[in-house]
Amino acid sequence: MNTGIALFLALLLTACGDHKEAAPEQQATPVTAALISLNPEEAIVENSYPAQIEGKVNVEIRPQVSGYINKIHIDEGAYVKAGQALFTINASVYREQKNTSLAALEMAKSQLATAQLDLEKYAILSEKKVVADFSYQKAKTAYDAARAAVRQQQALVDAADLNIGFTVVKAPVSGFIGRIPKRLGALVSPTDAQALTTLSQVDEVYAYFSVPESEILHINDTREGNTLLQKLQTFKDIGLQMANGKPYGHPGKIDMMDGQFDPGTGAVTLRATFANPQLLLRSGNTARVVLSTTQTGVFKIPVLATYEMQDKIFVGLVDAQNKMNRVALKDYIKSGDYYIVSSGFKAGDRIIAGELAAIPEKSLITAKKNN
């Protein structure tokens, strides 16, 4: 009986051993998936940055004399040309000042004429030794003082003319008028905290945008030029993406880099200039500046072919045995709908084209045939 039990246990162990050895031979069902074959190619890498648009010239229009506004010649938002009248300030006070100065000028000229007659008289008498030379010198001094008084009064007349001219406030440049907070009859002066209006010249506009320090250092290491600004200027045909997502129709160029990095953001401000012949862009517009770089020998991987997990980007790399392994991307940047990868792959590598998250690790892959 003991012999029978031992024989039974031996057969049972043998059967279990055969089952364990057979398990590895079972294979998972292959997963059918679309594949992408990777090959090094040339790619245009686009980086975009939020930008604030400003007119080339933004002027606060302020009065140079005090007075009540008699007339407003323009409306808010209007386009004006350089030299065009914007506001008229009551000039009656300055006209009276001019009249007073003109009267004083006539009096000074009369006194100058009298002094000149005395000077001529004493010049003759002094020459004939009829009077002492002191009398002649005294007459000459009086003549010089009268002549200076005429110049002084003429200056007051000219100043009154200037003030009268200042009562008509004109546009210093061509551009668009902003809001007009003060209305007809308002009292204005040069010391007012609030300007009469603002004027923006927008035939060219500036786009101010910030670039992180790490990207500035990368540009410094990879682009040609003697200075950092020269290296930034190697970006040709700077693009501008409007608020509606559409590209602006005119390319720009970088022409300024701020002298300091912002310690709070770790970024530096750059300025790109764009032509604005249709006057579409105005001060205060928002947009995105687009910097484009051409790279060669890189791999373009669609964003749809990737899977993000724990701040890493993975692709499903299919090996020669058609087994899929998730591989994290290295040395990559995102440009539009693609990741541009410079290392970690070789020509002919195959990756899963989409829905990577639904495919288990180490799955056997059957390439989906194109219809």
Description:
This protein has 371 residues and is of the alpha+beta class. It folds into four domains: 29-44 and 297-367, conserved putative lor/sdh protein from methanococcus maripaludis s2 fold (Beta Barrel); 47-56 and 202-294, Beta Barrel (Elongation Factor Tu (Ef-tu), domain 3); 63-89 and 167-194, RNA polymerase II/Efflux pump adaptor protein, barrel-sandwich hybrid domain (OB fold (Dihydrolipoamide Acetyltransferase, E2P)), CATH 2.40.50.100; 91-165, Helix Hairpins (Orthogonal Bundle). It has five helices and 21 strands. The strands form four sheets. Strands 3, 5, 8, 10, 11, 12, 13, 14, 18 and 19 form a ten-stranded antiparallel sheet that branches. Strands 2, 15, 16, 17 and 20 form a five-stranded antiparallel sheet that branches. A hairpin with a 2-residue loop joins strand 18 (332-335) and strand 19 (338-341). Helix 2 packs antiparallel against helix 3 (133-166).
